């Protein structure tokens, strides 16, 4: 299974967001990862649908929206209308995950569920057949630049076994040291923020994540 790289624009220079997106796309990014935080589900605030719509106007690359918000059902329609291709929400953040998966699909997007580090894959046992993607958080959501949690490697392996050939994404602390651990465990979409945007060459950084045999 080939590994796809999704730079998280949370670590981009927001004054030059369009340029920063084009730069990672030209450097080989397969998706753009868009982190939405509400100051409730996580202790940080980021961006909403109007920013996503602006990004949609500068790139054709799939937009991968990661909702770290309580009651995500309130906003999925807005993000779909703004141009999302994939919408992931946290299973911890809604009472009705099954209903929400179908709402996202009815809006024409792929549906993903994200798991906090302390949430077992067992929580989604009865949802797995409905999902296009599972997002395994490898840090506690809320901030970029945190350290990878090694215990998550086993969870990635378990989620891969549940998902067959569908997408398993990882997010948090992914760099040239951790990419091979998650890829070998079965992750096929690697989100990376501070590592890619902190590198002088985005292309070198993206290639180093894909080339996980090194
Ligand atoms: C964390 C976000 C991540 C974050 C990743 O809550 O969901 O997408 O931007 O940043 P790094 O790669 O720096 O850990
Ligand atoms: Zn994210």
Please provide a written account of the structure.
With 214 residues, the chain is α/β, with parallel strands linked by helices. The chain has one domain (4-210): Aldolase class I (TIM Barrel), CATH 3.20.20. 31% of the residues lie in helices and 19% in strands. The chain contains eight helices and eight strands. It has an eight-stranded parallel sheet. The longest helix has 12 residues, at 152-163. D-xylitol-5-phosphate binds next to strand 2, strand 8 and helix 7.
For the structure shown, list the relevant keywords.
single chain, 214 residues, alpha/beta, TIM Barrel, eight-stranded parallel sheet, 8 helices, 8 strands, globular, binds D-xylitol-5-phosphate, binds zinc ion
What's the CATH first level?
Alpha Beta
> How much is the radius of gyration in Å?
16 Å
- Write down how many β-strands occur, each being a DSSP E stretch of 2 or more residues: 8
Strand content: 15-25%
Give the termini separation.
Answer: 17 Å
Strand order of the largest sheet: 1-8-7-6-5-4-3-2
CATH topology: TIM Barrel
* The named CATH superfamily: Aldolase class I
Order of helices and strands: EHEHEHEHEEHEHEHH
Largest sheet: 8 strands, parallel
Ions, cofactors and other bound molecules: D-xylitol-5-phosphate, zinc ion
What is the molecular shape?
globular
Helix content: 25-40%
């Amino acid at each position: 299974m080939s590994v796809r790289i999704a730079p998280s624009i949370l670590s981009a220079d927001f004054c030059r967001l369009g340029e920063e997106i084009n730069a990672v796309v030209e450097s080989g990014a397969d998706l753009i990862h868009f982190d939405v935080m509400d100051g409730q589900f996580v202790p940080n605030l980021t961006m909403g649908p109007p920013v996503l719509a602006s990004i949609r106007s500068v790139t054709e690359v799939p937009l991968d929206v990661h909702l770290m918000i309580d009651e995500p059902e309130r906003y999925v329609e807005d993000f779909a209308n703004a141009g999302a291709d994939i919408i992931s929400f946290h299973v911890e953040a809604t009472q009705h995950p099954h209903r929400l998966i179908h709402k996202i699909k009815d809006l024409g997007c792929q549906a993903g569920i994200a798991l906090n580090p302390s949430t077992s894959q067992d929580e989604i046992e009865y949802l797995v057949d409905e999902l296009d993607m599972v997002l395994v958080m490898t840090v506690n959501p809320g901030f970029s630049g945190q350290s990878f949690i090694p215990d998550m490697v086993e969870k990635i392996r378990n989620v891969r076994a549940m998902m067959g050939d569908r997408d398993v994404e990882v997010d948090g602390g992914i760099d040239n040291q951790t990419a091979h651990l998650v890829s070998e465990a079965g992750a096929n979409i690697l989100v990376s923020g501070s590592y890619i945007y902190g590198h002088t060459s985005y292309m070198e950084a993206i290639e180093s994540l894909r080339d996980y045999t090194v």
